[in-house]
What does this fold into?
Amino acid sequence: MTPSGKIPFREKIGYSLGDTASNIFWQTFSFFLLYFYTDVFGIAAAAAGTMFLITRIWDTLIDPVMGVIADRTESRWGKFRPYLLWTALPFGIIGVLTFITPDLGHSGKLIYAYVTYSMMMTVYTAINIPYSALMAVMSPDSQERTKLASFRFVAAFAGGLVVQYTANDMVKYFGRGNETLGWQWTMTVYAAVAVVLFLICFATTRERVLPPKAQKSNLREDMVNLCKNGPWVILFGAGICLMTYVSIRNGTILYYFKYLVNDSEIHLFGNVWQVSHGKLASMFMVLGSIANIAGVLFAPVVARYVGKVRGYILMMVSASVLTAIYWILAPGDVIWMFVLQILISLVMGPMSPILWSMYTDATDYSEWKYGRRATGLVMSASTMAQKFGWTIGGGIAGWLLAAYGFQANTTQSADAISGITLMMSIFPAIGGILGAFLMFFYRLDNKTMKKIEEDLEQRRRDLDP
It folds into this structure.
């Protein structure tokens, strides 16, 4: 890294591949797991929703534990990098086990789902918390971390793009009509790719920002400082709202196209194409990811010239309004569905890198305000917010399907169709608006962060002249 805090291009690429690996699984869970459990494994929708709530609460609660462990890790590779090496292989193996479908009764299937999904979320935490914390210690420069976050999320959305484009086709190819077998082999391929990418991330990154030399381990003080960290508290709430929005909407897409849109004729430029609901859903997700990637590229520009806070509010409100429009679309309005998806994804693109960059800013703020740096704890608690929103959204999605009378693989009632439409539109939009409202109270703007960076740099020079 240069004296100005710039991170080499090669290192940015290497770091970003870690989120490609994570997102291969995250996107599979986000878009396909509820469908897999209800329509492939044969678990009732309400039971799947409850399972998501219980297992994800466990996953959410262990995030700070992992952050504390990582903060106190001492190795020749640093505090956070070694976990990319140590947990990559278990991550891949357990990911495959999650999509194994043993021939059990309903209770046996549910127990198997609870056990394997809990294991998956535990190992996901063990690798993803240190990975997220690593971003905060690769450079002391806030704007440079925003650029790094942009690289990260371009790669993350690229991983999602691969899943969305290939998953259905790979399941068909490997399964030859047997969806259970298709998912097992598809996840085996994904797992192998993820393991390799995590190892590359480990090999190409470096940790440079260290805690103050005089700092001694004090978990109680770290926890007190975290709870008093006002910017982090606001980001915690905003992260929950954002992931509730994403979880409900993404988890609904397959149901929306399978049961509401169905196989459709697309009229465009004088031509007519007959497209299956599965292909439509894949195209819908793929175009969304491409638009996300295009949007991510503008994150540094938005952060520098509009401001992280103002930009986040504008983008979240815009995405929520556009999402709500799905409520008035008819099943035949396929073109408009795709147009809105592209617009929403473009607007949402810069939000994730900006939000994660703000999490790293909250880490600097904590050191500046209280004289202690607990990067792993702050970043793990931030990830906890993301997962808690995912938990709420996943549970709500399963319960809403059940509440509106959803039955897998049958023609749906008018109530069920109405419920699926609401889950694609109004319900996620509510979460988005709440998240935007919370950000009105966030105070770490660009000017404030510049002052914090200068003060911290001076302190480090004083301690290590």
Observations:
- The mean pLDDT is 86.
- Residues 142-175 form the longest helix (34 residues).
- The longest strand covers residues 264-268.
- The beta strands are 264-268, 271-275.
